[in-house]
Write a structure and sequence with these properties.
The protein has about 50 residues and is mainly α. It contains one helix and no strands.
Length: about 50
């Protein structure tokens, strides 16, 4: 393989890893949001049922 090919492959891998990183961060953010909403809703339901 020539240097040009290796550079191109490295660039491609870098793009892929960056996409995966962004997707992972978005998924983690979504999970945190959903769990927070669930806690709030359950807290409200518990508060209503206690009252």
């Amino acid at each position: 393989m020539t240097d040009n090919q290796t550079v191109r492959i490295h660039g491609h891998l870098h793009k892929i890893t960056r996409k995966l990183f962004v997707i992972t961060m978005l998924l983690i953010g979504l999970i945190i949001l959903v769990s927070l909403c669930t806690i709030l809703i359950l807290g409200n339901l518990a508060g209503i049922s206690v009252a």
